[in-house]
Amino acid sequence: MNRIIPLSLGLVASLALLASPAVAVDGTLTLYTSQPNTDAQQSVDAFMAAYPDVKVTFVRDGTTKIMAKLEAELAAGSTPADVLLIADSVTMEGLKSRNLLMAYPDADVSAYAEGVHDADKTWFGTKLITTGIMYNTAATMIPSSWSDLLKEEAKGQLAMPSPLTSGAALIHTATLVGNLQAGWGYYEGLAANGAQASGGNGGVLKQVAGGEKLYGMVVDFLPIREKAKGAPVEFVFPAEGVSAISEPVAILASTQNADAAKAFVDFLISKQGQELALSQGYLPAHPDVAVPAGFPDRSTIKVMPFDAAKALAEAEANTARFANIFGQ
């Protein structure tokens, strides 16, 4: 899901001027991230342009592999990582529960909606990557609600990622179960209607764009981007709302440069840092920043409530129940 969107030197310079530090910070900072390489490099470059006395290096891999590396280092007694920027808040909650994250009570989150950031300010959402419904334009039934995927027209025609392999899918499952009136009955209905659950979001995109399936549950930017390239797909934000992962950032309690780490958090959640997320093609979490091309007006996008701590506590039970319903 790499997104090759060039960030001009002019934009980096503008972000640097707009986000010039109020307090001088220096030294080195090590970032562990699951961002695509291009996004990670752009984020680091823009931050260093704003904070030229801080040298940032980053290690990039998928969230699962980054966490495995971090856990191995922690078990060995130390990690070079100062800041963590990964896909989901549930993983952050696991670290928080073990007192591995540093609280940053002075972080300015006043502009944000409740729930985007940890109430105790140990992790902070940097964008909203929502999961909704995509469909192939050959479909005769145009969905507008999650319940539409239970209709006869969608029988055997729905692809969706599995929470057994996708963190976003696990959050999506917990969100729908917690917000739809039918709860787990909704997923039982999907299974009875022949829905296929496997792999991650990329596989869903491929199946629906290729016409193998007519409908899919998928993260927003994939079909929106592919539609812009000419693929025969559309994306729908269902009326009941969507789930969202927030690609949170957090400071590790073991950081050797807390001031620079706090500056990095400040930069990502500032309006200027959110403009960077927009330039990369993501839906910024900051309510006053525009939406990317292809997205509807922000006021029409309803994000369902989600409790990351509750989802962490129920993760094992949720994956087991999902696997039982879909025979995995």
UniProtKB/TrEMBL annotation:
Residues 1-24 form the signal peptide. It comes from the Bacteria. Keywords: Signal. It holds the Pfam family SBP_bac_6. InterPro entries: Ferric-bd. This is Extracellular solute-binding protein.
